[in-house]
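Entries read sequence, tokenised fold; example below:

***
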Amino acid sequence: MEIVVYGHYGFALLMFPTAAADFLEYERFKLIDTIGWFLKEGKLKAFSINSINNESWLNNNMHPSHKAMRHQQYNQYVIEEVVPFIHNHSKGLVPIVTTGASLGALHAANNFFRRPDIFSGTIAMSGSYDLKTYSRGYSDDNVYFNSPIDYLPGWEDNNMLEKMRQGKIVIASGQGSYEDPNASKRLSDILHSKSVNHWLDLWGQDMKHDWPTWRQMLPYFLGKFN
């Protein structure tokens, strides 16, 4: 599994690709260029990793239960391999903020919510946080516990909730073509019910589900982190 690193110092920004894309997607679509100032100034180091979505939710030849198992294996890869790589590369236990757009937003938010003891925050852009959107209604434990809309309402671990409350959480969406701002609103309502502070930011009707939106969003929110 390939990882590409940008920058030389600062907190870690862990980037999850959209859809079936790879670890170089954010570079190809110029999103890395938009955060160039933060990288040059040593505000952050960006770590962009591969996805296996084409081996799970985007593979229509797999049964949903097998897709969910693959998703869970991906989570284990992130925790057991990517996180230690980041700490080793950064020569210390730097804060790690997750981010991603579209399906990458689900991975980014889900990893933070599941492990706020490891991750320091998330910037989730244009996501759907109900995994049943991708499982076509199928559910089992692997689906349920990777679907924030499902597991967060029943979250009872006060220690983990407190760590979640200490994190920096941005849930953002445009309201233009192919965006689903209601998905972000629904997640926001659940976070409010758990007294988890976060920033729900819905951009205008001119902001569609596409790269120009995310190229504006990510540097804007990173600017608020510093």
The beta strands are 3-6, 11-16, 44-49, 96-101, 121-125, 168-173, 199-202. The mean pLDDT is 96. The chain has one domain: 3-225. DSSP finds eleven helices and seven strands in the chain.
